[in-house]
Amino acid sequence: MRDSYSQPLARDAMAYVLAGGRGSRLKELTDNRAKPAVYFGGVSRIVDFALSNAINSGIRRIGVATQYKAHSLIRHMQRAWNFMRPERNESFDILPASQRVSETQWYEGTADAVYQNIDIIAVHAPKYMVILAGDHVYKMDYELMLRQHVASGADVTVGCLVVPREEASGFGVMHVDEQDRITAFVEKPADPPGIPGDPDMALASMGIYVFETAFLFEQLRRDAADPNSRRDFGGDIVPYIVKHGKAQAHRFTQSCVRAAEEIEEYWRDVGTVDAYFEANLDLTDVVPKLNLYDRDWPIWTDQIVAAPAKFVHDEHGRRGMAISSLISQDCIVSGSVAKSSLLFTGVKMGSFSSVERAVILPYCNIGRSARLKNVILDSGVRIPEGMVVGEDPVLDAKRFRRTEKGICLITKDMIAKLG
């Protein structure tokens, strides 16, 4: 819990969400939308987590940089996040790559996505900048990270996860001293450095950074003038500050928000089809690893006006029911069964059909007598009557995208090609 502060630092901060990523490892799920716009958890989009964390932390000035296939992301934010009021010193700026610096230059990296909007940020005059990735699932109080930043006198504070060393090679990894001051920043090292006193664990970057705004502007202008820079926070800005200033690590355990029954500090990069599938199904556990029922830290999103979920028929072999599943509004489970599954808004299940360990995105239709197991259905998919997926790996791999862990991703185009 927070201790008492006369003036929350979040009031003087701006959150800047980097939401331009393609997310190519999510394969067809990002063919028509950016990764932050991918659906998650029944009613939300991935970007809602970073934005909700900012609002719940007390930050009332937010900018979101978009680039890759941003239409659905922008439309979602316009609908879900239009409650900010300028008369209350609140703002919500959507900042598409718009060639503001050069007529031929889009955002060239994470740092450049901020640099190109320095003039817009300056109008709001925040004292602190909280730079966020828009494609992770977690709950975090940024106020606590801001306090550590100020108390430590750091030039940059980097949000970090404590992960086993053998799992850290896919991250940017911090080499720190006993006070968690960063002494080296290494991108995806083959042999990650351990933590002092805990050599089997490593500190991995979450892609979250806190700066004083004036200092950040100086660094962005310096970096923009460097012809050899990749214009990236993790690759250029932070390593430079590690060498020439003071960089501090902030451990996620210090600011993770957990409801009473949540047993772990939950953070997920849902950047692969398998990771996305497992994170969604985490929510169906009896005691979910991530509690979306926590009214003290809500995940805000677009609230669609729709009818409640409906379950119909009660005959042997034709009974509408759901077990260990989340069923969203406007769903109709008609004489069918959902087990350990997550149904997004507007899903219709025909009689005698069944789904098990399924993540079914909005407005899908599952035909009568279909059987689906270990599947993700992209939005709007119509499963033909009697189709079976999840029982014949060879056939599944011919028709759909099947991952190494046996999860089948099914899109409208894949169904159309079946004839």
From TrEMBL:
GO biological process: glycogen biosynthetic process
Alphabetized GO MF terms: ATP binding; glucose-1-phosphate adenylyltransferase activity
Cross-referenced InterPro entries: ADP-Glc_PPase, ADP_Glu_pyroP_CS, GlgC_bac, GlmU/GlgC-like_hexapep, NTP_transferase_dom, Nucleotide-diphossugar_trans, Trimer_LpxA-like_sf
Keywords (A to Z) from UniProt: ATP-binding, Carbohydrate metabolism, Glycogen biosynthesis, Glycogen metabolism, Nucleotide-binding, Nucleotidyltransferase, Transferase
Positions annotated to bind alpha-D-glucose 1-phosphate: Y107, G172, E187, K188, S205
Keyword Transmembrane helix tagged: no
Catalytic activity, EC: 2.7.7.27
Pathway assigned in UniProt: Glycan biosynthesis; glycogen biosynthesis
Could play a key role in the communication between the regulatory and the substrate sites, annotated site positions: Q67, W106
Domain Nucleotidyl transferase: 16-284
Reactions catalysed: alpha-D-glucose 1-phosphate + ATP + H(+) = ADP-alpha-D-glucose + diphosphate
UniProt xrefs under Pfam families: Hexapep_GlmU, NTP_transferase
Gene3D superfamilies for the chain: Hexapeptide repeat proteins, Spore Coat Polysaccharide Biosynthesis Protein SpsA, Chain A
All residue ranges annotated as the Glucose-1-phosphate adenylyltransferase/Bifunctional protein GlmU-like C-terminal hexapeptide domain in the record: 307-410
Subunit structure, interactors included: Homotetramer.
PANTHER family found in the cross-reference section: GLUCOSE-1-PHOSPHATE ADENYLYLTRANSFERASE, GLUCOSE-1-PHOSPHATE ADENYLYLTRANSFERASE-RELATED
NCBIfam families: glgC, PRK00725.1, PRK00844.1
Family to which this protein belongs: Belongs to the bacterial/plant glucose-1-phosphate adenylyltransferase family.
Function noted in UniProt: Involved in the biosynthesis of ADP-glucose, a building block required for the elongation reactions to produce glycogen. Catalyzes the reaction between ATP and alpha-D-glucose 1-phosphate (G1P) to produce pyrophosphate and ADP-Glc.
Protein name (database record): Glucose-1-phosphate adenylyltransferase
Species per Swiss-Prot/TrEMBL record: Croceibacterium salegens
